[in-house]
Amino acid sequence: LDAKSGEPAQEAGEASLASINDNQHRSDVSEQLSSAATNTNMGKIGLKVRYYIALESTWHVILYAGCWRYRPTVLVMESARGRAIVTRVGDALTRWNWNTFSKMSSNIYQSQWKRALAEWTIINKIAAPVSFPVKIYAAHLLAKRHERKAEEAARAAPASAAGSAPREALRSVGLHSQSGSPAGMSGRGKSGSEAA
Question: For residue 158, which of 28, 61, 96, 143 sits 20 to 30 Å off, Cα-Cα?
Answer without folding.
Answer: 143
